[in-house]
Design goal:
alpha/beta, single chain, 377 residues, binds nicotinamide-adenine-dinucleotide, 23% strand, 6-stranded parallel beta sheet, 2 domains, globular, Rossmann fold, Dihydrodipicolinate Reductase, domain 2, 10 helices, 9-stranded mixed beta sheet
């Protein structure tokens, strides 16, 4: 009879950098995660002076960008924005009057998507570069048509995917692009917050509010992290909770398959206590974790076999993200190159969102690009 003596536990050859353990610290890679600085300051016109534009204008004023004209059919809104941010700006109730002004070279269009298409078209026809608020369009074919028009006119059309310049997202996308994580094998993003502020606003009327209006930023993060890697299939499910006050479902889960990686997005918009926002990226060389109580307060760690690096990041998504989208557009104009948030790139994120919404509606997985329009409920 042969006996096998008990084997000692196998010791890892190298430090495995387990998340949550006390481990050696490493210097963090220096990455240019802050918004770039344009040399030129062309005149900016803002079309639509609604709630979100306080963040646009706070960022532009701090960066020293000249907003020379404001427009809203609701004159009081344009007057309020002028009084608070740019006392010398001209104000209009009709966008055509703003577009006639020669010193307006860049137009920031911050209306809801349904009004936006005609405004973007008019701005491009008036030979202005355009920054469109998100979600860019209600249908991918319209988005492609607008991209083609901008190209034909030799103008830039960028989308205000400001999450790209949230400090933690900017750092992580640059880390992935620089190959610091090796090959990305999974991305798990979860957001637990309270979205009940939408009750009584136009947002409460959007059937797929979470996956369309809100999650577009998280679909866009996947577009940034996975770069040229093409997503192959999207599956999603949404639910209403018994106690939620907003009309649209406040719970959503999404699974995205890439050729050799997977991503999950998880949302609970009814979290009133212990709110948390987390990004977990696993690569073949390193793992990145960004976490915190919300999108304004995030702590980034990069785990490698040698230890953990924790970059000290400055700034916050609001308003620095809004600085980033305009700064990148202005730099692209002066450097005569496409902006990194050009509309065609962000359409890839919208294709993910539409596929997820289509999947949530019929319970079947979808190929990105297969669902061309925002599906009706
Ligand atoms: N993080 C973000 O980037 C972020 C956050 C919130 C909202 N948003 C997006 O910004 C957009 C606007 O949101 P909001 O909260 O400011 O909405 P809002 O309803 O407060 O404002 C929309 C404004 O557009 C104006 N408007 C409508 N038609 C117009 C026209 N033809 N010309 C000029 N102005 C016109 C309205 O009068 C209104 O003042 C939405 O697409 C929303 O998804 C983005």
């Amino acid at each position: 009879m042969t006996t096998t003596s008990p084997q000692p536990p196998v010791q890892p050859a190298a430090y495995t950098g387990t998340v949550g353990e006390k481990q050696p610290t490493r210097p963090a890679a220096e990455l240019p995660y802050r918004p770039p600085t344009p040399k030129n300051r062309p005149g900016i016109g803002l079309i639509g002076c609604g709630g979100i534009t306080a963040h646009h204008l706070t960022a532009y004023r701090a960066a020293g960008y000249p907003v020379v004209a404001l427009c809203d059919p609701d004159l009081a809104r344009a007057q309020e924005r002028r009084a608070t941010f740019y006392p010398d700006a001209a104000i209009y109730t009709d966008a055509r009057d703003l577009l006639r002004r020669e010193e307006v070279e860049v137009v920031d269009i911050a209306t809801h998507p349904s009004e936006r298409v005609a405004l973007i078209e008019a701005a491009l026809m008036a030979h202005k570069h355009v920054l469109s608020q998100k979600p860019f369009v209600l249908d991918l074919d319209t988005g492609e048509r607008l991209c083609a028009l901008a190209e034909k006119k030799g103008l830039h059309l960028a989308v205000n995917q400001n999450g790209r310049w949230a400090p933690h997202v900017a750092y992580l996308r640059l880390a992935v692009a620089a190959g610091l994580l090796g090959e990305l094998t999974s991305a798990d993003l979860s957001v637990h917050w309270d979205h009940s502020w939408v009750v009584g606003t136009p947002f409460d009327k959007i059937d797929d509010l979470l996956l369309y209006d809100f999650a577009i930023h998280w679909f866009d993060m996947l577009t940034c992290y996975f770069g040229a890697e093409e997503p192959q299939q999207v599956f999603a499910a949404v639910r209403r909770t018994r106690s939620q006050r907003p009309r649209p479902p406040m719970l959503a889960h999404v699974l995205v398959d890439y050729p050799s990686a997977q991503a999950t997005l998880s949302f609970n918009a009814t979290t009133t206590t212990g709110q948390h926002d987390r990004t977990f990226l696993v690569g073949t060389e390193a793992t990145a974790l960004s976490s915190g109580p919300g999108l304004q307060e995030q702590h980034v760690q990069i785990f490698t076999a040698e230890g953990v690096a924790a970059p000290q990041l400055h700034g916050q998504w609001f308003p620095d993200g809004f600085h980033g989208t305009m700064a990148e557009l202005l730099c692209a104009i002066e450097e005569k190159r496409p902006p990194s948030h050009h509309a065609a790139d962000t359409l890839r994120s919208l294709a993910l969102a539409f596929a997820a919404i289509g999947s949530a509606h019929d319970g079947q997985p979808k190929r990105p690009g297969q669902v061309r329009r925002l599906p009706a409920a």
